[in-house]
Amino acid sequence: MAVMKRLLASAVLAMLVAGSAHAAAPEPAPLKTIERLDLVRYLGTWHEIARTPNWFQQKCASDTRAEYRPQSGSTVQVINRCRSADGTLTEAIGEARRVGGPDSARLEVRFAPAWLSWLPFVWGDYWVVDIDPEYQLVAVSEPQREYLWVLARQPQVDPQAYNALLVRLKQQGFDLSKLERSPQSMQSVQPSQLAR
């Protein structure tokens, strides 16, 4: 009986220690988006300046960019292009839709075939969490802050503007130690050069 009491006391103590350790590391506040996204101004080409590593961009070594084009209805065509380490150009075409009201900065993106668009899990969150007033530098993420992209209208970005953006992202609870700069060679990625 004494052994059982000691085991129970040890288990309770372990749970208390684990609970206090968990409480010591506070969860960041829920991620906020910008208040209003002018989707028409957002359309066009954005160059990837930095990103957190992810499995679906493993082959992208440089010249990563995204192009957003209006489609009929309220959706946007998304064309992602990048150059692999061997110089091959690749492309992924998807679709984005706004979630919420007409000014919402919360979108969902899918790269699965259109006939699968009715499945909720083929859509990924695409939240605009920071953008400058001129729509030249933007940060995009999702509610868990697992993924983060910094995009700019030009392949190179002003270091002062980039560093100021990083300060704001840190204040939003992002772990910037995971953020990696994305090389831009200044070569344009032309659709006619893409590997098929």
From TrEMBL:
Keyword Signal belongs to the record: yes
Function, as annotated: Involved in the storage or transport of lipids necessary for membrane maintenance under stressful conditions. Displays a binding preference for lysophospholipids.
Organism, scientific name: Malikia spinosa
Official protein name in the record: Outer membrane lipoprotein Blc
Family: Belongs to the calycin superfamily. Lipocalin family.
The keyword Signal is assigned to this record: yes
Assembly and binders: Homodimer.
Keyword entries, A-Z: Cell outer membrane, Lipid-binding, Lipoprotein, Membrane, Signal
